[in-house]
Amino acid sequence: MLNMIKFSYLFVITSRTRKAYHVEESKYLEGHIYHMVHFRNLKSIFSIYAILSKNLLQKEGLVHLSIAYQTVQDLRDRIFIWDFLEKTYYSLHRYVPFYFSVKSSPMLYIQHSRGIQNQLIILEISRTILREQGVLFTNGNASNQRLSKYKGEKVGIVPATAATNYLCRRIYRPGGPYGTGSHISEIYADVNLLDRLDWAGISGSPAIEDRDESEWIRSPESK
Q1: CA distance linking residue 203 with residue 187, whole number of Å
Q2: Is residue 23 part of a domain?
Q3: Residue 26 domain-assigned?
Q4: I want to staple 93 with a disulfide (CB 3.0 to 4.6 A). Which of 12, 54, 186, 217 is the partner?
Q5: Which pLDDT band, with edges at 50, 70 and 90, does 87 fall under?
Q6: Are strands 79-83 and 154-158 parallel, antiparallel or unpaired?
Q7: Cβ-proximal residues to 113 (8 Å cutoff; 6+ apart), any chain
Q8: Which domain holds residue 73?
Q9: How many CB atoms lie within 10 A of CB 130?
């Protein structure tokens, strides 16, 4: 996810110019990623030709109708991602969330249960944006970092790359994690790790009996 995704016709550029990683072509870069918004947000999106992160929306003072659950946003407030270029941690709210699939997305089901499914717009862009330095992806909902609801611990995450031996590293402060969730989502910054995602689960098959596991597998994000 980036602070801002600008778009015009079929062209997609990032909010700042960065040197892209040199990576091997991957079959997983074929297709699209998807961003869900309420239709009332389209006017502002098209007026600036961009999708902004939560941080930038607040900074610019732009009115935005969120479709996110506040409890999930509260968890994301406490997640910070290491920026390899700038050598510092940034809030997860600095990124714009996308999904690899929407037909089996728990997020879409949640909006259906709220009765606003017909008010949603789904925007799509090419998965090739994953080649851009600064774009991240996960194997589940990024908020699943085993944070407790009330103890307030925070987590700093270094995304998995070749430089980290392809491991995602976490530091919890002060102490932790104190959550009891059975899943924890990995965050990646190298497209060569796309094969670590459960693509069968993302596509909605085969059937997964455990509902929590199903929702976790079918919620990978690109940021």
Answers
A1: 20
A2: no
A3: no
A4: 54
A5: very high
A6: parallel
A7: none
A8: 4-17+31-222
A9: 23
pTM for the predicted model, two decimal places: 0.80
User: Is residue 39 situated within a structural domain?
Assistant: yes
What phi and psi, each to the nearest 5 degrees, are found at residue 54?
A: -60, -40
Q: Residue 119 above 70 pLDDT?
A: yes
The predicted pLDDT at position 202 comes to 81
Distances, alpha carbon 130 to alpha carbons 103, 111, 120, in Å: 21, 27, 24
Integer Cα distance of 34 and 52 in angstroms: 14
Beta-strand runs (E) in the chain: 4-8, 11-14, 32-38, 50-52, 79-83, 88-91, 98-99, 120-126, 137-138, 154-158, 169-173, 187-188, 221-222
Q: At residue 3, what is the residue type?
A: N
- Distance (Å, rounded) from C-alpha 25 to C-alpha 165? 20
- Alpha-carbon span 112 to 30, nearest angstrom: 28
Q: Identify which of 124, 91, 79 has the alpha carbon closest to the alpha carbon of residue 105.
A: 124
Residues 6+ apart with CB under 8 A from 44: 62, 63, 64
Number of structural domains (the chain) is: 1
CA distances from 154 to 7, 28, 151 (A): 33, 32, 9
pLDDT the model gives residue 67? 85
